[in-house]
Amino acid sequence: MKFFVDTANVKAIKEIDELGLCDGVTTNPSLAAKEGKGFKQNVQEICAAVPGVPVSAEVVALDAEGMIKEAREVSSWAANVVVKVPMIPEGVKAMRVMHAEGIKTNCTLIFSAVQALLACKAGATYISPFIGRLDDLGVLGMELIEECRTIIDNYGFESEIITASVRHPLHVAQAALVGADIATIPPGAIKKLFSHPLTDRGMDAFMKDWEKAGLKIFE
Ligand code: G3P
User: Which of 44, 47, 53, 145 is the most exposed place for a label (fewest CB within 10 A)?
Assistant: First the structure.
């Protein structure tokens, strides 16, 4: 399963990339708004920081014509830009045109299996079901990822599933277990993936025993 970093913060992206865990980046208008810089500058800085990997940047027009115009602009900013398009009728209309023009798309704000089906049929490169926000409502978000997997496999769609709105390590483990192609994870949650109290305790004991015995690797 690929890891995308769910942030618009260049420093955080670079840190995760140094761990070898940045297979892509996803941003959204709320994340971009936190960065205190122009959207174009921000997207170009991210794309330059991780040149070989897809970077999702969202359009904000609400009509298909406006979305297509924005998509052409945003996708001209760097070779690795993927245009994020909302799951609304105008978005679906726009994605068909983008697909025909060879613009890569990430259909966002997917909360049901039928919405996922619509995005796949429109030729979305990626579909983003939001699991954390479903969990917030008391609905099991991960079941939607399983449904998306089944739909894509049933019909051989080319869209890849990005498990989005990931909040904690269990989401990441479950996404991998149900066969999501990708999980997009906030940097803080990626760091949490490493932790286990038994690892810390084990490390501590190994280091103490080693020191007590006065052992060395380079003698
Ligand atoms: O990129 C969109 C997404 O992952 C949102 O996450 O935590 O705001 O629901 P969240």
Answer: 44
